[in-house]
Amino acid sequence: MLAFPGIRAFDVSVISEVWGVDRTDRQVPAFDLRRVAASPAPVPMRGGLTLTPDRTLRWLARAELILVPGLDDYATPAPAPVLEALRRAHARGTTIAALCGGAFTLAQAGLLDGRRALTHWGLVELLSARHPRVRVEPDALFVEDGNLWTAAGTAAGIDLCLHLVRSRHGAEAAATIARMMVTAPFRTGSQAQFIEHPTPRADRDADALADVRAYALAHLGEPLTVPALAARAGMSPRSFARHFTAGTGTTPLRWLLDQRIAAAQKLLERTDLPMPEIARRAGFGSEVTMRQHFASRLTTSPRAYRASFAQAARPPQVKEA
User: Fold this and answer.
1) How confident is the model at residue 76 (pLDDT cuts 50, 70, 90)?
2) What confidence category does residue 199 fall into, taking pLDDT thresholds of 50, 70 and 90?
3) Greater confidence, 90 or 313?
């Protein structure tokens, strides 16, 4: 975690909670989180808080992942040594992820020139104006371009951190961390940032949609169609799709596909079930369909995913005496 004056305490807490807590007793891999700054001096943050670094910038040469917290004031310039260290790390191929306004720091380093990037929806125009060479995405939760990850505001930083854990260590590790943090385990990066504030009628619709989502999750292995789900919510298919997208930031079909992929990932990690049975239980209908969706969404195959994550995620077997 890169630290310098002006970083947001919330983002520091998110990074520390995801990677700085020992959860090996719950089969989560052991992470080595280091707090890196230009000097060993305490780094001031808003609210009278300080962060004490335990490494200096030279340690970044050993890092597998560099996390850049957002800023309380988006005009805050990062120290020149920090920007140069980021450039060197990116040139080495190190993955760098910036939360919320941390995109401004990467832009200051020139790393986002010509690349897609995100920030909080309220800062999109400001990032575009200050760094016109950055291809600012107007509406998503997180995005990657050239081994550089950027995320939208606040909660989207949690989504990005969990996604990075999921992509390296599997869905079960990310879900375990999410459960401990009492947060949603899975939101896709393409999901919209901004959800309109509910009105009393929208509150009733939201309750109906929550019931439908719970029903769908409990019946993923069954054929589920938008008209059938809409009928369960007491809406027309068109009205259901509109309210679902407004409430979740994604379409019913895309949400359903995301949940089926997540269910298949867990089955691949936790069980030795054959591929056709996993495809059936996750609702894909056939192994071919499941394989196609894994290729398009995860750029891997179900078999390769199992080979990478099953052994690490599965708890050790205890033999009876």
Assistant:
1) confident
2) very low
3) 90
Gap between the Cα atoms of 35 and 235, Å rounded:
51
Residue 7: φ, ψ to 5° = -70, 155
Q: Determine the 3-state secondary structure of 168 from DSSP.
A: helix
Tokens of 90: 């990116």
Tokens 């943090």 belong to: 181
Counting Cβ atoms within 10 Å, is residue 34 exposed (0-12), middle (13-18) or buried (19+)? middle
Among 301, 215, 209, 227, which residue's Cα sits nearest to residue 261? 301
DSSP 225-246: -HHHHHHHHTS-HHHHHHHHHH
| Residue 193: how many other CB atoms lie within 10 Å | 23
Give the position of tokens 């030279």.
58
The whole-angstrom separation of Cα 231 and Cα 121 is 34
- What is the rounded CA–CA span in Å between residue 303 and residue 71? 41
CA 109 to chain centre: 23
Instruction: Write out the E strands in the chain.
Output: 36-37, 43-44, 50-51, 55-56, 65-68, 95-98, 116-117, 135-136, 142-145, 148-151
Give the total residue count for the chain: 321
Cα(180)–Cα(172) distance, integer angstroms: 12
Q: pTM of the full predicted structure?
A: 0.70
Q: What pLDDT is recorded for position 250?
A: 85
Q: What is the CA radius of gyration of the chain?
A: 21
Q: Are strands 135-136 and 116-117 parallel, antiparallel or unpaired?
A: parallel
The DSSP call for residue 195 is: -
Provide the 8-state DSSP code for 249.
S
